[in-house]
Here is the input.
Amino acid sequence: MVSVADRLFTLASIPGDPWSITFLDSNGDIAERRTAAELQARVATVAGFLERETAPGEPVLLVLQPCIDFLVAFLACQWAGRLAVPINPPRRHRLIERLQGVATDSRARVALTGGGVADTAGLWQAESPVLAAIRWQDLAPIADDSAGATSRRTVDLESTCFIQYTSGSTAQPKGVEVSHRNLVTDMARMEAVWKLTPASTMVTWLPAFHDLGLIFGLLQPLFSGCPVVQMAPNSFLQRPALWLQAISRFKGTHTAAPSFAYDLCTRRIPAAQRHELDLSSLAMAMNAAEPINPEVMDAFMETFAPHGFRRAAFAPAYGLAESTLAVTASPTGVEPLIFHFDAAALEQGRVVEAPPTAAKRRVLVGCGAPLPDVPIAIVDAQTGRRQPPGEVGEIWVGGPTIARGYWRRPEESAATFGVRVAGEDDANGYLRTGDLGAMIGNELCVTGRIKDLIILSGANHYPQDIERVAQAAHPAMRVGNGAAFGLSNEQGAEQVVLVQELERTQRRADPEPLFRAISNAVWQELEVQLSHIVLVEPGGVLRTSSGKIQRAANQRAWRAGELPVIAEWRSAAARAQAAAIDPMPVSPSAANDPVALTHWLRRWLAAKLGLPEAEIAADRGFGELGLASIDAVEMTSALAAHCGRSLPETLAFDFPTVREVVEHLCGAKAQSTPTPAASSSPAAAHGGDLEELLSMIEGASVGLRSGSAG
Here is the structure.
C-alpha cells in the first residue's frame, strides 16, 4: 500500500506519461493541462518552499480558487510531510469567519493561495488580526525550478495525511484527521466498487477543498491512474451544459454531483443544446445529495436517456469526512434501489413497505451496500442499543477508514469516535454519524438527521419532507432552498417554521397566494400545521460551507431578525400568541405607516417605562428614557410581532430613537429593500444566481458529505 505522493511518482515514471489533468475555462475550452511528470516537477518545487518555511507535520492552509495549483498544493504538502488544510476562500467577506475559525483551530502559520486569491487576501488580513498573522504565499511566483525542488519524504501510512474541516448544522467546524492509510484504503475500495481503471476518465466540477471534490474528483484519478478533466463550480453553475458537454467530448466514464445538479441540467439545458450530447460513455454518475430525490433521478433519466444516459449509471452513495469519504455505494452497472415506505409508520420510527395503493407513501432511494470491511449498526441514540430489523435508528459506522478523531479536540473525538454498542463486545468501536436510517437487507436507507427531527404529538416529522412539499406547492418557490425547523412556544408546545427562498423573478409577487398554497399543501399532505412561513430573498437561506441547510442557524437568524425577509405569514394560533406581547395590534398597512407606527411605539414605551406618553418624544434616546437592555430586546420582539416581520435584536441599539426606528422600518419598506441588518448578514451579503447556487455546493460535501445524509 503506497501513498498518494508515491502514486504520482509512479505515474510520472511510466513511458509516454499517459496520465494528465486538464482544466477547462468558463467556455469549456482547455485552459491548462499537466502530465504526471509536469505535475511532479511543480509539486517538488512547492514542497521545497514548504520545507524551507514550515516544520514537519505542520498544518498548511490551502486557500485557492479552482485551478490545477490546488492539486499541486495538496500534493506538495504530502511530498514535504506537511498537513494540508483545504478551505474555501471567502467571497465578498461572506465566509471570513469560517476562515478565521479554521486558521485559529489548526494553528497554521502559512497559507498557500492561487487562482487569484492573492488579490483579495490583503483585504482579509486588514480586517482580521488572525489572518494578518499568517504568511500568505501565492503559488504563481514560485517558478518550476529544479534548484528549489525537494525529494518526497518517506510516508508513515499511520500518520495524519491532511485535516478535513467539516461544518455541521449545529456545530462549529471541526478538523477531521485523515491518515494516509485511511485515504488509500478508501480509494482502493471505491476503485473496486466503481470499476476505475487507467482506461477511465473522471470529469468533475465539484469544489476541490472538500472531501468529495478532493478525494473522489482529484485524488481518486491519481490513485487509479486515469486522466481527470476539471472545471470550476461556477462554470457549471453558469452553464450546466458544460458539464455534460465535457463528458461527451472527453468520453467521461465517471463523475459525481449532488441531486440538485441533475435537476439543474434537466431544467436549464434546452433541447437545442442536448442534441449533440453523447453520455453513453458514462459508467457511473454518483448521486449523493441530502437527500437523494427520486423524482430528480426520473426526470434526468427521461430527459437524457435519448442522449445515451443509462439508469444503471446512477450510483447513489453515502459517506462522511469522519470516515474519510465513502461508507456505502451502489455498484457500477446496477440500477439504484427505490423503496416505498408507509409514511405514518416511518414517523413512528419503523420501516414498513407501502403498497402502491397506499394513500401516503414516502419514497426513498437506497444509498447502496456497505463497502468491504465496513460494519454498520443501526442504534437507538438514547440507549446505545442496536435496533431490531425494520427500525430506524442512528447510523453507526466502523472499519479501516474511520479517521483518528478531530484535530486537537479530544473530548469531542471521544464522544463521536470509538463508541460501543451497548451489550456488545467490539474492540474497535464505531463512529456516530448523527444521521438516521435503517438497513433494508444489505441496503442503507438514510431518513434524516437526529437534531433536525420535528416531533409533533409524538410523531417524527423530517424537515426535508416539509421543505419538499412546500417547494412543490407553487412555482415561485426555489427548489432545494428552504429550511423547516421546530420551535417551542410560550406554553412549550412545538411549532413549525418554514424559511423559504423565492425565485428571483417572484420577489415582488403578491405573497398571500404563496402562503395559502404552502400552508394548504403541507397540511393536506403531511398533516402538519405551519405556524410561520418566512419568504426570503434568493440566497437568504443559511447553509454550511459544504452546502447543507443549516436549520438550527436559520432558526437563530430568524429569531434575531437577521434574514433578508420579503414577507412573513403567521397562523391564527401564532397571531393569538403574539397578541399577548403586542397590546395594540394593527393592520399591516397601519404598521407600515410612519404616523401610526410612531404612535404605537410611543404608547408601548410609555406603558413599559411607566411614563406619560407625552414624555416619549420621538427624538429622545432610548437610554435617556431609561430603557434597559432586556427591555430593548422585548421592545424589538413586540415591534416585530406588531409589524409582522422579523427584526434584529440589536434594533434599538442600531437605531436608538423612536424617529430613527420608524424611519428605518418604513423607509426600508417603502423602498422594498432589505434592512441593513439583513443585507449585512452572511446569508444576504452575496447576490446573483451564481452565488446562490455556489452556496449549495461549497465544499462538495453535498455528495458524500461531512456530517449529513448521503
Summary: The chain has a mean pLDDT of 85. The CA atoms of residues 561 and 646 lie 4 Å apart.
